């Protein structure tokens, strides 16, 4: 039986999603917990690997198991065996051709900026602190040039392994509530560091270091070395993954809000 699973984690203590020798990763913790419930080794595949310090409110994974367990048994048993900074929110049997990564048709992220003169102890691992005053209107104007289907070579990590830099960015919205600035992004898929590189460009524009047109110029250069600073990881959250309706996951795909923000 193949299962799809919704996973939530605080990425602060992890060296990212993917298993690496000698360090703490989300994948290793999840596989160990599922294997205890299944009573045999479990390997999981995720919708999108996250870097060290990045959070997920709605990561999706799949795994195969011949073990006879109810969804409730899987859910409760796995969570008991997970550390406090990881848990699964739902689990559901799916068709054998379902793949958490390759079946996905959309992904959504949120990026949180704490924009205040002094740092916040509460948000230190959950948002990026920017002490310079950010002009939301400038950032919103710059963001418009990035929406649509483009070659995002300037916004991908140099080590990105994606075969093509072409992506369709369907949503890039910015809002502000007090000291908190929220970026909300949705695309068919994202390149490595794409969201953090977009955030870095918009922050530079928001604080006045760069003109509004710089976002468009960076995009047109198609050169990462001209793309500015990669924003820190702790402000980034994976908040939704979308799949075709035939997999029956629609009711589980609603974008998740960030507690204390939206």
Structure description:
This protein is α+β, with helices and mostly antiparallel strands and 262 residues long. It has 2 domains: 2-103, Pseudouridine synthase I, catalytic domain, N-terminal subdomain (Alpha-Beta Plaits, 2-Layer Sandwich); 106-238, Pseudouridine synthase I, catalytic domain, C-terminal subdomain (Alpha-Beta Plaits). Helices cover 20% and strands 27% of the residues. The protein is built from 5 helices and 10 strands; from the N terminus they run E-H-E-E-H-E-E-E-H-E-E-E-H-H-E. The chain has helices spanning 26-38, 71-80, 136-143, 194-206, 214-221, and strands at 2-9, 45-46, 55-64, 86-94, 106-114, 128-129, 148-151, 166-177, 180-187, 236-242. Strands 1, 2, 3, 4, 5, 6, 7, 8, 9 and 10 form a 10-stranded mixed sheet that branches. Helix 1 (26-38) packs across helix 2 (71-80) and helix 3 (136-143) packs across helix 4 (194-206). It is globular, with a radius of gyration of 19 Å.
């Amino acid at each position: 039986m193949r299962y799809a699973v919704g996973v939530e984690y605080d990425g602060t203590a992890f060296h990212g999603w993917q298993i690496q020798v000698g360090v703490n990763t989300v994948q290793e913790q999840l596989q160990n917990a599922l294997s205890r419930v299944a009573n045999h080794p479990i390997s999981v595949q995720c919708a999108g690997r996250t870097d060290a310090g990045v959070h997920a409110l709605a990561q999706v994974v799949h795994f195969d198991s011949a073990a006879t367990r109810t969804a409730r048994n899987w859910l409760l048993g796995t969570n008991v065996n997970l550390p406090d900074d990881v848990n699964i929110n739902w689990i559901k049997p799916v068709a054998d051709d379902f793949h958490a990564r390759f079946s996905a048709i959309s992904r959504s992220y949120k990026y949180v900026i704490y924009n205040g003169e002094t740092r916040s102890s509460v948000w230190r691992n959950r948002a990026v602190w920017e002490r310079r005053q950010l002009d939301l209107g400038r950032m919103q104007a710059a963001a418009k040039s990035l929406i649509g289907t483009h070659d995002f070579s300037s916004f991908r990590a140099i080590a990105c392994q994606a075969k093509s830099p072409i992506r369709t960015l369907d949503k890039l919205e910015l809002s502000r509530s007090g000291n908190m600035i929220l970026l909300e992004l949705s695309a068919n898929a994202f390149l490595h560091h794409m969201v953090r590189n977009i955030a870095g460009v918009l922050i530079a524009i928001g604080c006045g270091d760069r003109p509004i047109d710089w976002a468009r110029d960076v995009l047109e250069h198609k050169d990462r070395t001209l793309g500015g600073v990669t924003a820190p990881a702790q402000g980034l959250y994976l908040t939704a993954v979308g799949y075709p309706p035939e997999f029956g996951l629609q009711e589980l795909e609603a974008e998740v809000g960030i507690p204390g923000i939206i």
